[in-house]
Amino acid sequence: MLQLRLSCALRNCRPAYRSFNTTAVRLKPLVILDEQHATDKVTNVTPAILSKIPMRLHNQTDHPLSILKTIIQSHYDDFSHFSSLSPLVTPFKNFDELSFPKDHPGRSVTDSYYINKDLMLRTHTSAHEVQVFGEKQDKWLLTADVYRRDEIDRSHYPVFHQMEGARLFDATAAGMKEVEEDNARLEGILKQSNIVIEDIPHISEANPVQPTHNPAHAELVAKNLKLSLNSLILRLFGSGERSSPLRVRWIEAYFPFTSPSFEVEVFYGGRWLEILGSGVVLQSTLDKANVQGKIGWAFGLGLERIAMVLFSIPDIRLFWSQDERFLSQFKSGEITTFKPYSKFPACFKDLSFWNPEGSAPLHDNDFCDVVRDVAGDLVEDVKLIDSFVHPKTNRSSSCYRINYRSMDRQVGFTREQE
Ligand code: DAH
After folding, report:
1. Which InterPro entries match (predicted)?
2. Rg (Cα) of the chain, in Å, rounded?
């Protein structure tokens, strides 16, 4: 079946969808969230991806993602919260409004899902920053499903969930006094707890203050960002008895829409885990939202990453499971340890094929989308294990190893029934 679908995809003859972008063909409109959308030569959403759009796992009661969302929400209890914005956004909103350069790789059809050239599935919750700041919100959280074309393994899935948070202050003496008071409050909380923070300067030559900002204001706001997130991390990872302190480290980063910018890693389960990106909001983002006289911070964190660690969920596909043995294990407000109920052996199948004549080898993400369409969540991971170029004809072939391993089935179960 996969072989058949693949050859179909390679010949570009799937009726309403195409995984990749060769010659233009007429495609049927797509109905997404009850609205019809035209398709064109950049359309690359697949049925497997479209089927996830209505699911909104982050709003499903007792789902680990919604439990985590609610805990973060309760930590930021005076923030407004948005959690049902449509994932359909313009590339302008996803990228340009946030100052992404024109040649940013995230814009490519191999990295992002396009409905047509003017409409895509958001790749991050930051896509809504200008919109929400424009509603004159100074303290807000936003949770949503986001979509990125990716390879297949236990920790990557093309749909995942992010939570964006932001806080703005008046860029005045009174506003900065408010920041200082909040910083003192947060420092008090952190001082009493068993947490070790590896910090870096709030501002440096490589991670500069924005030209329109007063450096003293930017320092205070960046400090507030760090303290606020350190206290959130303490809330999430620091509970329970621990013999060694919780370790957190701040790392210099780059995002097109913040400066200075930071990433945060938490030492958990014996390794450093990157959990979020953050920074001082670019003035141009606030200008586009018509917000004047303010300075502030924003962050975006990946809910699955954190939930996998906190609930001990070993495979990202499990979040999509409708199996009661998965869903019944979680209760609102509680972080519990997941007990696996399926131990299926790995089942490898290798699949090789010639790439279309005269074109580059198939992109891994294109192959993975075909696999997801055909085999759905039965596939645990996919690896390119061999590529070959024929010395005479110059044609190339690829060989992928597909690991079929159900996350829900149980080996013993059927045997016992027999
Ligand atoms: N949107 C970024 C991502 O998906 C994460 C991020 C970084 C969000 C910096 C922010 C921010 O709000 O300020 O990788």
Report:
1. aa-tRNA-synth_II, aa-tRNA-synth_II/BPL/LPL, Fdx_antiC-bd, Fdx_antiC-bd_sf, Phe-tRNA-synth_IIc_mito, Phenylalanyl-tRNA_Synthase
2. 23
Centroid of ligand 1 to alpha carbon of 220 (angstroms): 20
CB under 8 A, 24+ apart: contacts of 370-374:
370/2, 370/5, 370/6, 370/9, 370/19, 371/2, 371/152, 371/402, 372/46, 372/48, 372/49, 372/152, 372/158, 373/5, 373/19, 373/46, 373/47, 373/48, 374/1, 374/2, 374/5
Q: Whose CA is nearest to atom 8 of ligand 1?
A: 300
Domain that holds residue 397: 2-36+343-416
In tens, the pLDDT along 337-376 reads 999 998 888 899 999 999 988 877 889 999 999 999 999 9
Q: Tell me which of 112, 251, 299 to substitute to probe ligand 1's pocket, judged by most ligand atoms within 8 Å of the beta carbon.
A: 299
403 shares a domain with 282: no
Ligand 1 atom index nearest CA of 276: 5
Half-sphere exposure of 71 (CA within 13 A, CB side): 23
Beta carbon of 66 within 6 Å of any ligand 1 atom: no
Task: Please count the other Cβ atoms lying within 10 Å of the Cβ belonging to residue 103.
Answer: 7
Nearest CA to ligand 1 atom 10: 299
> What CATH number is associated with residue 12?
3.30.70.380
Tell me, yes or no, whether 292 and 408 share the same domain: no
β-strand pairing of 271-281 with 139-147: unpaired
Nearest atom in ligand 1 to the alpha carbon of residue 301 is 5
Threshold 0.85, pTM exceeds:
yes
Is residue 11 located within the same domain as residue 87?
A: no
